[in-house]
Amino acid sequence: MSTEVRVPTLGESVTEATVATWFKKPGDPVAADEMLCELETDKVTVEVPSPAAGTMGEIVAQEGETVGVDALLASITEGEGKAAPAKADKKPDAPAQKDSGGGSGESIDVMVPTLGESVSEATVSTWFKAVGDAVDADEMLCELETDKVSVEVPAPASGTLTEIVAGEGETVQAGGKLALMSSGDGAASPAKSEDAPAADSAPESSAKDVEDAPSAKKAMAEKGVSRDQVEGSGRDGRVMKEDVAKAGSASKPGSSAAPAAAPAQAPRAPSPAEDAAREERVKMTRLRQTIARRLKDSQNTAAMLTTYNEVDMTEVMALRNQYKDEFNKKHGVKLGFMSFFTKACCHALKEVPEVNAEIDGTDVVYKNFVHMGVAAGTPTGLVVPVIRDADQMSFAAIEKAIAEKGARARDGKLSMAEMQGGTFTISNGGVYGSLMSSPILNPPQSGILGMHKIQQRPMVVNGEIKARPMMYLALSYDHRIVDGKGAVTFLVRVKDALEDPRRLLMDL
């Protein structure tokens, strides 16, 4: 009996994905719910489990192919899968086919380890060992970089590194091959390592063991500098682009006598090649590409406008200082400003429902609930986890949800479901010191509130000038659905609730 493996539901507004990695091959035995492959969308990576136990049959969608929702990926045949071992020999269990250790021992594959939830590929950043080096079990061989964390790869056994399959700068998939090791003493390897000290007289042999930076190779070609003229400052003598720039300036004839011979000579403008040698080109991560595309789409689609106001934070700060210790002791979470702003926005959205609505073709969809998006900055870019039904939550529940979502965002563990379905967004640029900015809408939402830095400013209070902790508020909204009156009313209601927090308790 054959069972079909199909593309699962990919989430709101996501209709297609790319097959990133197959963990199984035809003939491999699989257990129920065992991961078969990973799909990449423009938001997150989706793992596809096996719908039943059996044997991996035909793979219909190969790696790199684009598939739609519910498309056929493969088939599972119930049974023992007797043909599996023969095909599985191509995987890490059959390294003997690639024994490059000169017959000195069994060949061992060094594979890319599991990179973490929703991470399917990484870039090889640094090799700590060169071909021919002796390594101990669990000694670090190289370091991989993902869009979330760095991963160190240990040696699976003691032996000799015989071949590096993925060089520095190359992108590798989870479960891919990085290198080959020989479990023996590696009799052919010492000859390579013994030649290394003679690199002064034979730089070509050094270049084979230590791969120069790609930017350095390009700079050497552009400046006409040979490899033996450059002294590498990188790991194990690796030549970096800065080394090429230094070698190029030092190799100019008469450079030391130039100041005396022509003291009045005007400084020479750097050539494009010299500027290029000091540049660094880094490929955008998939997350950053998605952020860039969505933000630009938002500007192109919505009639975006921003209105501003300012709020006196005196009362909120006083209330927070008075109860923060008791709040933390009872609820186990700190009392911050975000719960006050979330509550204030929920009250204002009830009065101005069009800010909590969205446009769907020629229809306006009003949301009778508030799923609050809270923008969070991470090392890899901006993400917006969603707190569902925030209008029904207490201060403590909101603070706990914000803390938990923020931690998951920083660790790169947010799922697609946790970033979907938001009806309104709050972005707090004040934590980075922003005094005023215009936030960009998070489509298909029609409103986003920007919080900013709290700063002491002179204000007139009851006819007297006093220093007050003030914050600028910015509401960006879609003018196709929200009129200026509604936007201003929304901001005024948020301002009133924050300047007199008792209104939140009284539902005013």
Molecular structure report:
Pathway: Amino-acid degradation; L-lysine degradation via saccharopine pathway; glutaryl-CoA from L-lysine: step 6/6. Keywords: Acyltransferase, Lipoyl, Transferase, Tricarboxylic acid cycle. E2 component of the 2-oxoglutarate dehydrogenase (OGDH) complex which catalyzes the second step in the conversion of 2-oxoglutarate to succinyl-CoA and CO(2). The chain is of the alpha+beta class and 508 residues long. The chain has 4 domains: 2-88, RNA polymerase II/Efflux pump adaptor protein, barrel-sandwich hybrid domain (OB fold (Dihydrolipoamide Acetyltransferase, E2P), Beta Barrel); 95-192, RNA polymerase II/Efflux pump adaptor protein, barrel-sandwich hybrid domain (OB fold (Dihydrolipoamide Acetyltransferase, E2P), Beta Barrel); 210-227 and 271-283, no CATH class; 287-505, Chloramphenicol Acetyltransferase. It has 13 helices and 27 strands. It has helices spanning 84-88, 189-195, 203-209, 214-223, 241-250, 258-261, 272-277, 286-301, 314-331, 338-351, 395-410, 484-499, 502-505, and strands spanning 2-6, 16-22, 29-30, 35-40, 45-49, 54-59, 66-68, 72-77, 107-111, 121-127, 134-135, 140-145, 150-154, 159-164, 171-173, 177-182, 304-312, 357-360, 363-366, 372-374, 376-378, 381-383, 386-387, 424-428, 447-451, 455-461, 464-478. Strands 17, 20, 23, 24, 25, 26 and 27 form a 7-stranded mixed sheet that branches. A 4-stranded antiparallel sheet has the order 1-8-6-3, with no helix packed on it. A hairpin with a 2-residue loop joins strand 21 (376-378) and strand 22. Helix 4 runs parallel beside helix 5 (241-250), helix 10 (338-351) crosses helix 11 and helix 10 (338-351) packs across helix 12 (484-499). The longest helix has 18 residues, at 314-331. The protein is globular, with a radius of gyration of 30 Å. The protein starts with a strand and ends with a helix. The model is unreliable at 81-103, 186-208 and 254-262 (pLDDT under 50).
